[in-house]
């Protein structure tokens, strides 16, 4: 007796979720065109009849479309409170989940001593029904202990705006190296010859990537024609006064003639500090940032910056996770979204 060809059978044959197969057969969004073609070809080969085309079935025989698995979003409390960047990334992610028909749940896992009687899933979010979790999106930095739990949770996951060389998984980032390079090239085009980059290496991997882009660009200049100095701060604490004192300790001819903030907030705070001490921008020095937050257009002078995708970053993360859910054996991908230089009055 031949077996009944159902959505479950197709899913098992293709290595896909029942939800993905159902949406492909129904012509709905949420699966790639390549996946849709694979599903339709196998369904035709095996003689599957979609319920919309099949004769009316007896009560109770109608095959129900599987409910969508939920997408778990893991992000720190600090990111949750960041309205100018992370909230916009999250808005893009949630909008994409809604458009594609996936429920979403947001948690902020806290590292705690592991318990032998708890699975990684229960360590991350003990209150959830993990049988319905389709995959995980990790937003920004999380402690290594939490990332280790996520890696062992037996669910596909995607890192967003986070670089972890030890983890083989899909990653969606802005091209932070190019952002650092673009703003440095711009300042060089303004005849700046001593560029200082204000950063906190411990704050975010993206800060280090932006510094790397600046270093690469300066390194390509003729020897001795341009200089890059790194001015380290503790971003989470007041830093403007100590940085200003450090600048004053330099002879006037040794001071930078341009400054890059590792993000717009750093650049704006430094510009305000210099202005409060009587230094004009850009007449005394040029200042630029990276991010293109709304405040960059509101300060005087308006801040030159590099636009980084925010809502699009969240959208692409959902797309990458659905791809991973549909094709669990596919090679891991790292996606870099392009940047755009925005020249304003501060340079």
UniProtKB/TrEMBL annotation:
Pfam family of the protein (one): LacI
UniProt keyword terms in alphabetical order: DNA-binding, Repressor, Transcription, Transcription regulation
Taxonomic superkingdom: Bacteria
CDD domains: HTH_LacI
Gene3D superfamilies in UniProt: 3.40.50.2300, lambda repressor-like DNA-binding domains (1.10.260.40)
Key word Transcription regulation present: yes
SUPFAM superfamilies attached to this UniProt entry: lambda repressor-like DNA-binding domains (SSF47413), Periplasmic binding protein-like I (SSF53822)
Domain HTH lacI-type, chain residue ranges per copy: 5-59
InterPro entries tied to this protein: HTH_LacI, LacI/GalR-like_sensor, Lambda_DNA-bd_dom_sf, Peripla_BP_I
Protein name: HTH lacI-type domain-containing protein
Organism, scientific name: Paenibacillus ihbetae
């Amino acid at each position: 007796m031949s077996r009944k060809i159902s959505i479950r059978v197709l899913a098992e044959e293709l290595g896909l979720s029942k939800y993905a197969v159902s949406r492909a057969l129904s012509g709905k969004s949420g699966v790639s065109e390549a996946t849709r073609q694979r599903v339709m070809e196998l369904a035709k080969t095996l003689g599957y009849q979609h319920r919309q085309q099949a004769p009316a079935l007896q009560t109770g025989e109608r095959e129900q479309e599987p409910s969508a698995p939920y997408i778990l979003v893991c992000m720190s409390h600090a990111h949750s409170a960041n309205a100018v960047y992370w909230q916009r990334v999250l808005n893009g992610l949630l909008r994409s989940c809604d458009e594609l028909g996936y429920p979403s749940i947001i948690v902020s896992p806290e590292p705690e001593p592991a318990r032998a009687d708890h699975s990684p899933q229960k360590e991350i979010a003990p209150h959830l029904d993990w049988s319905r979790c389709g995959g995980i999106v990790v937003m920004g930095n999380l402690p290594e202990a939490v990332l280790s739990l996520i890696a062992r949770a037996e669910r596909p996951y995607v890192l967003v705006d986070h670089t972890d060389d030890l983890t083989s998984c899909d990653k969606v980032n802005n091209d932070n190296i190019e952002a650092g390079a673009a703003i440095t090239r711009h300042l060089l085009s303004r005849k700046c010859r001593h560029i200082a980059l204000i950063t906190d290496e411990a704050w975010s991997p993206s800060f280090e990537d932006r510094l790397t882009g600046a270093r690469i660009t300066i390194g390509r200049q003729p020897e001795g024609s341009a200089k890059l100095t790194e001015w380290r701060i503790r971003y989470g604490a007041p830093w403007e006064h100590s940085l200003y004192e450090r600048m004053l300790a330099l002879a006037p001819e040794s001071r930078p003639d341009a400054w890059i903030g590792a993000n717009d907030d750093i650049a704006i705070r430094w510009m305000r500090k210099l202005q409060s001490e009587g230094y004009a921008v850009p007449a005394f020095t040029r200042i630029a940032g990276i991010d293109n937050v709304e405040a960059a257009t509101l300060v005087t002078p308006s801040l030159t910056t590099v636009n980084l995708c925010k809502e699009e970053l969240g959208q692409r993360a959902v797309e990458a996770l659905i791809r991973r859910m549909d094709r669990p054996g596919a090679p891991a991908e790292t996606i870099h979204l392009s940047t755009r230089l925005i020249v304003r009055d501060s340079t």
